[in-house]
């Protein structure tokens, strides 16, 4: 199974790159599943229903987000009716619209678990991300119900990783908080990683 993940699509320039290249990548690489992070798609501040639909039309199977998911108010009702748009799973489940995780089926019948989780580094306090991941994994076992699991982990410190995380996880320096619109707009877009699961 071939999976592509595109991180942080920011503003119109990021959306233009996705629109230009994703359909070709999907075709040429024979991708089975595509996840994009769209939390900054609306000019760096959230995502709208129309922009989400554009990303789905370009070939995204699932859109993940982060703390900017709430920047565009109209997205609240869209989250309720569109399970392919995920908000972080560790928002309080009883009072937060939408889903933070889901199992999605590819055209070839493979089942992919996607979990969107937000850390607490420089962020508002949320439920424990590691407990939320454990809960999302409950009942899902690779090879017995799901064929792949994808985690979009937003704003988390690698030094806070629990015992079950891989020792091979790269150590990254903490991110520098972005305080201005100009600095936010200057970030590179988008970062992508493709993997093949055999």
Q: Can you characterise this structure?
A:
With about 200 residues, this protein is α/β, with parallel strands linked by helices. The chain has a single domain, classed as Purple Acid Phosphatase, chain A, domain 2, CATH 3.60.21.10. The chain has helices at about 10-30, 50-60, 75-80, 130-135, 180-185, and strands spanning about 1-5, 35, 60-65, 100-105, 110-120, 140, 145, 150-155, 190-195. The protein is globular and about 40 Å long.
Q: Please tally the helical runs, counting DSSP H or I stretches of 4 or more residues.
A: 5
Let me know the average pLDDT. Answer: 82
Low-confidence stretches: 159-190
- For the termini, the CA-CA separation is 6 Å
**Fraction in beta strands:** 15-25%
List the helices and strands and how they pair.
Elements (H helix, E strand, L loop, with lengths): L1 E6 L3 H18 L4 E5 L11 H10 L3 E3 L10 H7 L19 E5 L5 E8 L10 H9 L3 E2 L2 E2 L1 E7 L26 H5 L5 E6 L2
Parallel strand pairs: 1-2, 2-3, 5-8, 6-7
Antiparallel strand pairs: 1-9, 4-5
Question: Which terms would index this structure?
Answer:
single chain, alpha/beta, Purple Acid Phosphatase, chain A, domain 2, 5 helices, 9 strands
Write a concise synopsis of the structure shown.
By secondary structure, the chain is of the alpha/beta class. 25% of the residues lie in helices and 22% in strands.
